[in-house]
Amino acid sequence: MAGAKLQLEYDVSTALAGLDYVAGRLDSDGRKLLLSHIGEYMLGSTRDRGVRQVDPSGQRWRALEPSYARWKRKVRPGVPILKFDYHMLGDQLAWQLDGDAAVLVGTNAVYGAVHQFGSKDPHRRTPARPWLGTSSTDDDEIIHIARDHLIAGMPES
Which of 67, 81, 86, 125 has the most CB atoms in a 10 Å sphere around its CB? Predict the structure, then answer.
């Protein structure tokens, strides 16, 4: 993924301990299945945030500059700041496994990084409008997904 990607890393010790515990109890195929489910969940969550035009913390993206907003309303009426459905980032947003240890979520669209981090190019300054990342709701859901995989992998007594 050349444009932008998200690599899930948790600073929350409870979440990390829980994911490490689950990962240690699953074989390679089980870890890949877990990461695949997390990747699918994150695609939906990322797209939903794009529709709402908010970053992972729920903050609204910075508005377009007035002159660009006027041009965009005229040339592309009704198109939001970033369009995630079958255009721009939407059809290029993907997840991929990095072995059985990580899931990467991102896009191969170069402008994905520009919107995530911003650009200081003097000809086309773009403020950061983060769209990759996890919210606290995402973190909780990822833990639930991991718990469900652990429970499913336990032998019945």
Answer: 81
- Provide the pLDDT confidence category of residue 121 given band limits of 50, 70 and 90: confident
Structure tokens at 50: 């794009």
DSSP 123: T
Task: Band the pLDDT of 113: cuts 50, 70, 90.
Answer: confident
Provide the total of helices (H) and of strands (E) in the chain, helices listed first: 5, 3
* Structural domains counted in the chain: 1
What is the pTM assigned to this prediction? 0.77
Residue with tokens 């990390």: 16
The span from the CA of 106 to the CA of 88, in Å, is 13
DSSP assignments along 65-105, one per residue: PHHHHHHHHHHSTT--SS--SSSTTGGGEEEEEETTTEEEE
Q: How many CB atoms lie within 10 A of CB 12?
A: 12
Task: Indicate whether 144 pLDDT > 60.
Answer: yes
